């Protein structure tokens, strides 16, 4: 498994007859991490579903490693992109190991019994998300954060060159947020993730694409893109990047929010 480039060219996403996101052009270099950010309802999840191959674009194309994702057969696509959705839950009827083992489906002959190497991959993925001793437990007996870590383990076990994650730090406690980011940092995979925590984006992503009103309004290195002008215009918040006095790393401190508008935007 090697990481792969992701090229999004002229993508438009629709829900029914409504255009949610249009004219998206993004290049993600192999082995790098791109964060999609934007306010609630901006279109991040809608775009991610297209980038994961779950939905077809209304126009434009997504190429992974130079191959059109939406013309791949299902098995090839599942060997190319692993995805964890925002509200996804592992099936309550499965044990933790079975739920993670689903990530191996695209690699296995469905009639073959689980081999040692397959088990080792599942065990390794579980240990990576801190659930090493949980394999035989029912998914029903897990907390919300643990269930989310099962889904991340399933995506890791899928061993795809590309990971698509919709708000992967939601449901996670403070330590696991940081551990997850450090785990993603260490992976040689191309990662596209919708993120609300802009501070984590600043330190853990190579690039950021800002979606606002269905358009990518800015993209580039997080430290350059997430300045106070953009925070005010897109997120309606004040904020500044400061350097941590001990680590020397940049942190984004949000200061205040502008009053909310309560009129839904219908386009
Ligand atoms: N099935 C649907 N049919 C019609 N409109 C939809 C549907 N799903 C989402 N939308 C609309 O599409 C827009 C984008 O939704 P999306 O879930 O992609 O936003 P998001 O940026 O991921 O938001 P959040 O940060 O709240 O998760 C929203 O205005 C939403 O109301």
Task: Describe this structure as you would to a colleague.
It is a single chain. The chain has 267 residues and is an alpha/beta fold. It has a domain at 90-158. The chain has helices at residues 44-51, 74-80, 96-101, 116-128, 144-157, 174-186, 198-204, 222-225, 228-235; strands at 6-15, 18-28, 33-37, 59-64, 67-68, 81-84, 162-166, 190-194, 207-212, 215-220, 237-243, 250-257. The strands form three sheets. The protein has a six-stranded mixed β-sheet with strand order 6-7-8-3-9-10, with helices on both faces. Strand 7, helix 6 and strand 8 (190-194) form a beta-alpha-beta unit. Helix 4 packs across helix 5 (144-157). The termini are far apart. 39% of the residues are buried. Adenosine-5'-triphosphate binds at residues 15-16, 18, 20, 38, 40-46. This is ABC transporter ATP-binding protein. Residues 6-238 form the ABC transporter domain. Keywords: ATP-binding, Nucleotide-binding, Translocase, Transport. Residues 248-267 are annotated as: Disordered. InterPro entries: AAA+_ATPase, ABC_transporter-like_ATP-bd, P-loop_NTPase.
């Amino acid at each position: 498994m090697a990481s792969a480039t992701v090229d999004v060219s002229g993508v438009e996403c629709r829900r029914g007859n409504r255009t949610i996101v249009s004219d998206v052009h993004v290049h993600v270099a192999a082995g790098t991490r791109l964060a999609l950010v934007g306010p609630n309802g901006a279109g991040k999840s809608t775009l991610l579903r297209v980038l994961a191959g779950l939905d077809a674009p209304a126009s434009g194309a997504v190429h992974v490693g130079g191959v059109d994702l939406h013309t791949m057969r299902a098995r090839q696509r599942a060997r190319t992109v692993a995805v964890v959705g925002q509200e996804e839950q592992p099936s309550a009827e499965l044990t933790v190991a079975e739920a993670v083992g689903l990530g191996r489906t695209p690699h296995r002959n469905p009639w073959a019994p689980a081999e040692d190497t397959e088990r080792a991959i599942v065990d390794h993925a579980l240990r990576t998300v801190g659930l090493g001793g949980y394999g035989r437990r029912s998914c029903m007996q897990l907390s919300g954060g643990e269930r989310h870590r099962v889904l991340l383990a399933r995506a890791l076990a899928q061993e795809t060159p590309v990971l698509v994650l919709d708000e992967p730090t939601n449901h996670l406690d403070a330590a696991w947020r940081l551990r997850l980011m450090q785990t993603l940092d260490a992976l040689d995979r191309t990662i596209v993730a919708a993120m609300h925590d802009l501070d984590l984006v600043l330190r853990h992503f190579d690039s950021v694409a800002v979606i606002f009103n269905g358009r990518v309004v800015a993209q580039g290195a997080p430290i350059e893109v997430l300045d106070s002008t953009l925070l005010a215009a897109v997120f309606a918040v004040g904020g500044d990047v400061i350097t941590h006095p001990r680590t020397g790393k940049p942190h984004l401190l949000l200061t205040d929010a502008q009053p909310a508008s309560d009129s839904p935007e219908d386009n």
